[in-house]
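Case study 2.
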Amino acid sequence: MKMFLKLAMALALVFSFAHAEAAELLNGAGATFPYPVYSAWAFDYNKVTGTRLNYQSIGSGGGIRQITERTVDFGASDAPLTPEQLGKDRLLQFPAVMGGVVPVVTIPGVKAGELKLDSNAVCNIYLGELKYWDDNRIKSLNPKVNLPHSGINVVHRSDGSGTTAIFTNYLSGVCPAWKNKVGAGTSVKWPVGIGGKGNEGVANYTKRTPNSIGYVEFAYAEQNKLSYTLLKNPAGNFVEPNFKTFEDAAATANFDPKKHFDLWLVNAPGKHAWPIAGATFILLAKEKTDSNKKVVKFFDWAFSNGDKKAKELVYVPLPKSLKDKIRAYWKANGI
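Prediction:
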């Protein structure tokens, strides 16, 4: 009898531990862009709380699909969903961290931050209508830069991506010709250029192709020591890509909690705002109250304790004003 009781107690203890472990596991899936920072946050959060985060880096489309099907605790997407899409699938949405898309060039003798471009020049380069680096439309912006009479080698993504979605939304917002001829999306029909797979492919093509221009996420420009360009923003200032200009874009953009933060963070009005910034978003199922509270607890911790780690990994933390809006949004939605 004693042996039976001991066995029963041992089994109960094992079941209890297994149950507790299951309760302390969060499952998420989606965008590849924020995977490194989510993983780093999860590692630190586990040490503090014991809660484990299992995040599948399967792309924004997969994350949207899995949360819509209720197979994960949260989805993640670089492309924000509209209030109509969220309402249809009974989802909530908030931004978690920021990045930026950066034009990079390989032009002999031109260093990082020396070349200035405006939206008109970027648009016409990618439309294939501006073909040479010493075109007056570029030279007039760069009178002191020695630009060669060489053809511009355009590099773009060959695969569907959130980076492309941000970049093409920027072009559509500043260039009617681009909006009418090409449009915006994770994949578009590029008028000119060669395609590279992933940010890695675009970075590699641009780095080894003379007189080229490409676009990559900020982290890849930094890690690969690529020569970034300055860009003229809507306020009329030439700005360089860095934490301050991305933060200014987020701080001055009109993120509206009533619209579930549905906003492409391009062409923000801030005086020093980088014009091709972007947030990545978390999606929750409205009715999953218990798991939502655990997910929000994780991101609330990350907002308070994860900024340093995000910057180490070359991500841009959300400004305090936006974090406060998100916390109020959680409360308003009963989380």
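The two ends are 48 Å apart (CA to CA).
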